[in-house]
Amino acid sequence: FTSNNEANVGSFNTKGVHSSQATLDMALLKSLVADMKIDLSQPSTFGELSIFETMKVDLSAPKQKIDILSTIKSPVYTTDVRAKLDGNAPDYKTVLKASATSPVVRLQYDLDSSMSSTMENGALVVGANAVLTHQDFTMDISNAIRMSERSHILNVDITSQTFTDVNLRYAARSDGISGSVSTPGSGLLGFQLQGNIPSQMNARLYCRYAFAPDDDVDILSVRAVPKGDEKVLLVTGNIKAAQSMFEGLMNTLEKISFKLAGLAREYGLAFPIFVADDVYGVISNGLYAARRATPGVSELSQLFRNVVVTSQKTIQVLIDNAIE
C-alpha cells in the first residue's frame, strides 16, 4: 500500500509519502512467519516528520524469534526502539534498547536492557538487567528470580551528580526477607524479617551511619518470646537512633527542597516548586513535633504518632496541589 499527499495553505506546505507492506505465512499449529514494514514520511515547512517500523516474526516448534525496530523523527525529538526475542521455550533471551535525542538535552536518554529465562535443576530461572542513562542520573537495575531456591534478588544503583548516589537492595527467600536503601553521605537504612513460622519469626529495622558503615544500630526490633504456654511479640524501640536519623533528615531536607525547586524551574515547571515548598513545611513541622514530649505518652508512641500525622499531611498537600 502506498499513498501520496500534498497540502499548501498560505506559507505552510507539506508533501508526504506513506507506504506499508505485510506478508504472512502460516501453517496451522506448526509455524507462523510474518514480515511487516511501515514507512511514513511527511516533510513540511516546520521540518521533517517520519515514522519507520519493521517487525519480523518467526514462530515454530524448534525456535521462536521476534524482531521489532521503530524510529520516530521530528524537528524536536527523535527516538529509536529495538526489541528482540530469540529462543526455544523455556529458554529465551530478550533485548530491549531505546534512545532519544533532542535539542532539549534533558529529554535525551539511553536504555539498554535484557532478560533471559532458562531451566536450572528442573526449575525456572529468570534474570533481567537494565541500564538507563540520562543527563542527571544513571540507573543500573539487576533482577533475578530462582524458582528452585524460591528466591528473588533485586538491586538498584543510582548515580547522580545532580542529586545523590542511591543504592537499593532487596532479597527474598523462603526463610526471610531483607531490604535496604543507602546513600554515601547519610548511611544505610535496612529491614530484615526471618523465620518460617509465626512462632519463630523476628524482624528488625536498623541503620548504619556513614562514619561507621560496618556497625548495625537497631531502631526497632520485633521477636516472638515465650509467655507461659504461649508466645507473644516483644517490640523494642531505640528512640535515640530514630531521633538521630530524623535530625540528619532535618539537616538535609531544606537542601532537597531547594534542589527539587531549582530543577523544576530549569524544566519550566511551576507546579513542583509549590509542592516542594509545601511538603518541606509540613515535614519540617512534623519532625520538630517529634522532638516534643507529651506527658503520659511513651517516646516510641510519640515518634510513631508524629510520623503518621506528618505522612497524612504530606499526602493531603500533594492531593490539594494536584486538584488545584
Spell out the key features of this protein.
Apolipoprotein_B; low-density lipoprotein particle receptor binding; flat; cholesterol transfer activity; alpha+beta; 23% helix; 3 helices; 324 residues; Apolipoprotein B-100; lipoprotein
Notes on the structure:
By secondary structure, this protein is α+β, with helices and mostly antiparallel strands. The protein has three helices and 17 strands. It has a 17-stranded antiparallel β-sheet. A hairpin with a 4-residue loop joins strand 5 and strand 6. The longest helix has 29 residues, at 239-267. The protein is flat, with a radius of gyration of 28 Å.
- Terminal Cα separation, in Å? 48 Å
Number of helices: 3
The number of distinct β-strands equals 17
Low-confidence parts, pLDDT < 50 over ≥5 residues?
A: 293-298
- What general outline do the C-alpha atoms trace? flat
Helix and strand string, N-terminal first?
Answer: EEEEEEEEEEEEEEEEEHHH
The rounded Rg comes to 28 Å
- The proportion of residues in beta strands is over 45%
GO biological process, one term: cholesterol transport
InterPro entries: Apolipoprotein_B (IPR052418)
GO molecular function: cholesterol transfer activity; low-density lipoprotein particle receptor binding
Keywords: Lipoprotein
